[in-house]
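We were asked to recover a plausible sequence for a given structure. The inputs and outputs are reproduced exactly as logged, with field labels preserved.

PROBLEM: sequence recovery
POSITIONS: 279
GIVEN STRUCTURE:
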C-alpha cells in the first residue's frame, strides 16, 4: 500500500504563481491555478501510483503557534482584500469541485495546521505502508524515514527526498532537521534563527553535538567565540523555534486510511475541468 498526502495550499500557490500565463475559463474567471493544480496532481498520481490519497488544506482559524510567537508567519500576505485576479484563494471553489469530480477526499484542517495533520498521517501509517508527502515545505524533511518520503513536484524535474537526499544536501539526518532549522531560521515562516549561524555552521554543530538541546547545554564549549555567544544569547529563541518547527503526532487525522482508498481511472485535466464547467 502507498499513501499520497498532498499539501493543498502549497500546490495551489505553486501553480497559481508559477503558471506561465493567466488562463480564463468560459465564464470569464481565471482558472490557471485550477488548471495547474489538477494537471500537477494527475502527474503526481501517475508518478507515485498511490493506493490511498488525500489533499489537505489549511482552514481559516487562529493559528495555535501564534501563542508561541506573535511573529510566526506575520510576513504572509493578507489576501482578504486582494482582487480575485491576483488571489489564489479565489480558485479554491473550483479546485474543491475538481477533487470531488476525481473522487479524491479533501478537507480544511481546523484544529491546527495542515502540516500537523499530514505529519499525523506519517506517524500513524509510516510503519505500515509507504507514505509520500507532496509539498515544497521543507519542514516535512523531519518526517523522512525508510517509509516516509517528500515529493517536490516540478514537472520533469520532480524529486523525491529521502534520507540520502538530506544527508547529501545538508549533512544531517531527518531527526536533526527541526534542530537544524531552529538554528538557521526560516524566512518563509518569519522565524529568526541565531545570528551568525548559517547552513554550514548549523550542520557542523549538529554533527558535533547531535541535537539543539545538547548544543545549548554545551554552548560554553563551542570553539568559535561569535558562534558561542550567539547560541548563549539566543538560547530561548532557539527553544521557541524548535517548538514552532517540530511536527508531532498530536493532531487528529481527518480520514481513516480505509476512507482514502483510491484508484486512478485515467481521467485527464481537460476532462475534469469540462465536468466542473470551467472550460
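RECOVERED SEQUENCE:
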Amino acid at each position: 500500500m502507498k499513501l499520497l498526502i498532498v499539501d493543498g495550499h502549497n500546490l495551489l500557490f505553486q501553480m497559481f504563481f508559477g503558471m506561465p500565463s493567466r488562463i480564463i475559463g468560459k465564464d470569464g474567471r481565471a482558472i490557471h491555478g485550477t488548471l495547474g493544480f489538477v494537471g500537477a496532481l494527475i502527474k503526481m498520481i501517475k508518478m507515485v501510483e498511490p493506493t490511498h490519497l488525500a489533499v489537505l488544506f489549511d482552514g481559516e482559524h487562529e493559528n495555535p503557534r501564534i501563542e508561541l510567537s506573535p511573529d510566526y508567519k506575520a510576513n504572509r500576505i493578507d489576501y482578504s482584500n486582494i482582487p480575485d485576479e491576483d488571489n489564489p484563494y479565489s480558485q479554491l471553489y473550483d479546485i474543491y469541485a475538481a477533487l470531488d469530480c476525481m473522487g479524491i477526499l479533501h478537507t480544511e484542517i481546523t484544529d491546527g495546521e495542515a502540516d500537523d495533520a499530514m505529519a499525523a498521517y506519517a506517524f500513524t501509517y509510516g510503519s505500515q505502508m509507504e507514505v509520500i508527502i507532496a509539498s515544497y515545505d521543507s519542514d516535512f524533511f523531519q518526517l523522512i524515514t525508510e517509509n516516509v518520503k517528500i515529493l517536490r513536484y516540478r514537472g520533469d524535474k520532480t524529486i523525491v527526498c529521502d534520507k540520502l537526499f538530506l544527508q547529501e544536501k545538508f549533512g544531517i539526518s531527518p531527526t536533526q532537521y527541526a534542530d537544524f532549522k531552529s538554528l538557521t531560521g526560516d524566512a518563509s515562516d518569519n522565524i529568526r534563527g541565531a545570528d551568525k549561524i548559517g547552513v554550514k555552521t548549523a550542520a557542523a554543530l549538529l554533527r558535533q553535538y547531535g541535537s539543539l538541546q545538547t548544543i545549548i547545554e554545551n554552548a560554553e564549549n563551542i570553539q568559535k567565540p561569535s558562534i558561542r555567544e550567539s547560541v548563549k544569547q539566543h538560547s530561548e529563541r532557539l527553544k521557541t523555534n524548535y517548538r514552532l518547527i517540530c511536527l508531532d503526532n498530536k493532531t487528529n487525522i481527518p480520514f481513516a486510511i480505509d476512507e482514502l482508498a483510491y484508484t486512478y481511472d485515467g481521467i485527464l485535466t481537460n476532462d475534469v475541468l469540462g465536468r466542473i464547467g470551467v472550460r
